[in-house]
Amino acid sequence: MPEDRISVEIQPIWGNFREAIRALTAGEEAKKQPLGQLLGKTRWPWTPSDNVETQITFLTYLANSLVVAVLSVIGTLLSSSLVAYGLTRIHWKGRETLFTVILATMMIPFPVLMVPLYSVFRTLGWLGTLMPLWVPAWFAGAFNIFLLRQFFLTIPENLTDAARIDGCSEFAIYLRIMLPLAKPALAVVALFQFLFAWNDFLAPMIFLTEPGTFTMALGLQQYQSQHGGSEWHLLMAAALLLVLPIVILFFFTQKTFIQGISTTGMKG
């Protein structure tokens, strides 16, 4: 029955949530103050040494993930919107052909590019830093270009033509007319990119070598591999903190996000 099915599906989620809250509110003396057990350096050792300076905190992973996600979102919005504007409002020979090639790159899976990217980042000396995780976002992804292009097509060309007659440059039209009107689509792209960068595991596993640069996803996996299943309550608490930023972000942007999804792609 539907009620039984809902109960079966919710019970594992509720169990994980209960363990997470139990870990976050544990209060065993000074060492186990709220969040102390999870966020303290003593809970995330990376070497057998007892030296505090060789131990990484949970907040380090949180900060690294936040830096990567924010820089990726900024780069994606700037680069993808510029390319989408050039593909919709500037007429030049070969525009549609280039757009077809850009769409074709969506069929190339990331594992195919891992070795070439690794070689490039090693040559640049970026291995072991956060740069390989956010710099590629500044070169415009095909999916984001497609979303923004489809939205830009729904904006009447009369607006941009009138701006040109008034003497506006192409960059001024892009900045003062197109971007303000494209806020719903930009919100969709920003949320998708933030979610991708925040949850990305494969790229950090390949390009990051120092524990101090690990992101949340990689740090949790490393912690689980070292401690096995002996501290599931802490893992559930960390997983809860991992998903909270996404939930909060969507909660505050859901209206704009849904509007952008419903209006993107209405014109081809």
Structure characterization notes:
With 268 residues, this protein is mostly helical. It has a domain at 58-215 and 252-263: Orthogonal Bundle (MetI-like fold). Helices cover 70% and strands 0% of the residues. It contains 13 helices and no strands. It has helices at 2-24, 36-39, 58-88, 95-104, 110-124, 131-134, 142-153, 157-165, 170-181, 183-199, 202-207, 216-227, 232-263. Helix 1 (2-24) crosses helix 13. The chain is globular. The model is unreliable at 1-10, 27-38 and 40-55 (pLDDT under 50).
Top CATH class of the domain at 58-215 and 252-263: Mainly Alpha
Strand content: under 5%
At the fourth CATH level, what is the homologous superfamily of the domain at 58-215 and 252-263? MetI-like
Elements, N to C (H/E)? HHHHHHHHHHHHH
Question: How far apart, in Å, are the first and last alpha carbons?
Answer: 43 Å
Average residue pLDDT: 77
Please give the number of β-strands. Answer: 0
CATH third-tier fold name of the domain at 58-215 and 252-263: MetI-like fold
Rg, nearest Å: 23 Å
CATH architecture label name of the domain at 58-215 and 252-263: Orthogonal Bundle
Low-confidence stretches: 1-10, 27-38, 40-55
